[in-house]
Each structure stands twice: as structure tokens, then as C-alpha cells.
């Protein structure tokens, strides 16, 4: 079946599902394959649960006229997404970077939704499957679609751009994330910059942090760029006021008081403000959107328990985000400061040195106690209390002395799931 004909079916049943546990009535089930499963085997179950059609790529499962046989289910999903993206009139904003992608995406969504019918990537569905699913969530009346793109190796952003074909793009930053896949920081810069490469090749617009020398120099004399700055001329000026603990910003003589912790969230807010201005969202609406946005899903959440302020930043971690989180935490006023740090993943051969660097940094900062959790931190040379894994930490938690007041930082990679600490605390 051609993509055009499949798209006609999709317009009649405009919901896509890839998991039979989450079947929506009259959705189209795409029988994707993984290392440990074959979606083709669940096509019949999907239909019985209410799916309108099932897309399979193994002939023996094409047993009814509601089952559509294709050469490759994943490629068909991706091609359908691109076709639908071009069928709809929505402008697509591509978003990538090492840190802050999801928070930035949510802030941009909050701002642009003040004026436009906007959709954005759900959660962190930002890979070769998630990006197509986001594109297929665009409705015919959608005006702007914000598509988050993640990557852990070269050419991945390039491929996701070929699917999403963004009209605009923004890179949050270049940090020490996924070093194992990218082969080092230079690989990270090259890989994330594939978004810029696509936009420049197709003469499309770029948003940037003009104070980031990597971004500024990378774009050079490219004309269709729109940046924010604290220092340069010829770009939109946004000033950082403070983060004690919440980020305060000044723009056009007005103060914006966010509910985001840490100076590192300043640029995330700036991106949303810049895009709001570009798309002619009234400044009052931009301010409202930033000020009312509340972080969720373990990202820089401020929680109070038993008189102690807890900064829960356990959604993910890499050396760059860990460094800025610790430095910000160290600068906060009020009571003893205790940090619980979990291992950072996907660092390859640099893991020992990067964990030692974070340990050494922590020793120099204004912190009262630091507890290290995970195999990599366990191998560091330090006087801090260390635990080989979370189970070891949990078993010995009774020996951890906590103050009756003060502040706690919880930071670690997703695989460490340090939000479990909340129950212990």
C-alpha cells in the first residue's frame, strides 16, 4: 500500500499505537519489532481490542482486510509521519541539546500556546520512534509543533531532521552527555549541530543563545538567525537577575519571576521568551506563561518534607548538568546542605575520570555532606560516604544522619531512579 493511501486511512483513524497494552478504540496499530519482541505477533490482539487496522511486515500475520502488509513497519511509520507533517500546515520547531531539552520544550509550549494551537513532544518521545509519533499527533488545525530530538551518536539528529523537516530549530547547549556514543565532547558538538546543518542547508530559521561561543561561531554570517543575549548587540536582550532559589529575569524593563530552580534554567526560559517574541506573543502573555510554569517529572522540583527543602533533579544526569546543579546548590542560602549523588551513565571510558571530577568538585563547594551512590562513584578517591548501589544505600540508610532543617539535593542518571529517596526521607 502506498503512503498516500495509508495516510487516507490515518485521516479516518488519526491515532497511532505501538503497544497492545495501550490500545485506543479505532487506532492504527503499528507492529514494531524490538530485540526481545515481535509486534507482528500482537496484531490480532490489537484488532480484538478495538484497533481499526494493524500494520505488519510478516505475511503470515496478514489474515484479514484490516491488516495491512508493508515491507518494514518502522520505515512505514517514519514515512507516514513525514507525509503527514507536510500534509498539515503547522510550522515545526526542532529542539535538541545535551541538557534542558524537555524543560525548554515545555516552556516554549507554554509560551506559544498563549496565542497558537500548539502541540509538543510528549514526555521524552524524542527518538526514531518518538519523533514520528509526535508528528502524527499534529492536527489539521495545529499551528505550531515543537519536536524534541534526542541523540546518543552521530547522524541521529540528521536522520530525525530528515523525518521532521523542521522550519525552525534551537540547540539548548553542548555538554558532556552520551560521551560513549559520540566519542567525546567534539562528537557531541558535531552531532547536535546536525540540526543547524539541516536548517542552514534548507535556508530555514535558527534560534540561538548568542552568548554561547560555540553556537555563535558555528552560525557565523548565516542570515536567518535570531538570538537572545545579555552582552551582545544586534540580539534580543534578556538579563539574568538571580536564582535564590528561583530564576528571576528582566526583559524590556519587566521582571519575570519563574518557579524554576537554578541559574542553569535561565537559558531555558530565554529560549521560550525569544520564540514568543518572534511569533508575536504579547509580552504580558509570555510573562504569564513563564511565571505559571511548574516543573514536573523529577526535574528541578522543589519539595518540602519535614521542614527540609529537597531539590529533586533525578530525571537524568551527565557531567555538565551535575556540575551546574552542584554549583547552584552550593550557592543557596539557609541551613545545612546535603547532596545525594547517583552515577552518571553512558560515559564510556571517561566514566572513572568524570565521576572523580564531580567528587573533587563537590569537596571544594559549600556542602555539609555528600553521599555517593553507584558503582562508578564507589570507585572514586574521596572521604565522602559511598554506597556501591541503591540497595546498599537503602540497607544502610539508618546510619545517614539528616538535619532537622536545611536543604537536600538529589541528582543522578535516570537508571539510578533516585526519586526513591523521597520515601526514605
Automatic annotation (TrEMBL):
E.C. number: 6.3.2.10
Function recorded in the entry: Involved in cell wall formation. Catalyzes the final step in the synthesis of UDP-N-acetylmuramoyl-pentapeptide, the precursor of murein.
UniProt protein name: UDP-N-acetylmuramoyl-tripeptide--D-alanyl-D-alanine ligase
SUPFAM superfamilies: MurD-like peptide ligases, catalytic domain (SSF53623), MurD-like peptide ligases, peptide-binding domain (SSF53244), MurE/MurF N-terminal domain (SSF63418)
The protein's enzyme class: ligase
Entry-linked HAMAP family: MurF (MF_02019)
Involved pathway(s): Cell wall biogenesis; peptidoglycan biosynthesis
Lineage: superkingdom: Bacteria
Molecular function GO labels: ligase activity
Species assigned in the record: Maribacter arenosus
Alphabetized InterPro entries for the sequence: Mur-like_cat_sf (IPR036565), Mur_ligase_C (IPR004101), Mur_ligase_C_dom_sf (IPR036615), Mur_ligase_cen (IPR013221), MurCDEF_CellWall_CoF430Synth (IPR051046), MurE/MurF_N (IPR035911), UDP-N-AcMur_synth (IPR005863)
Gene: murF
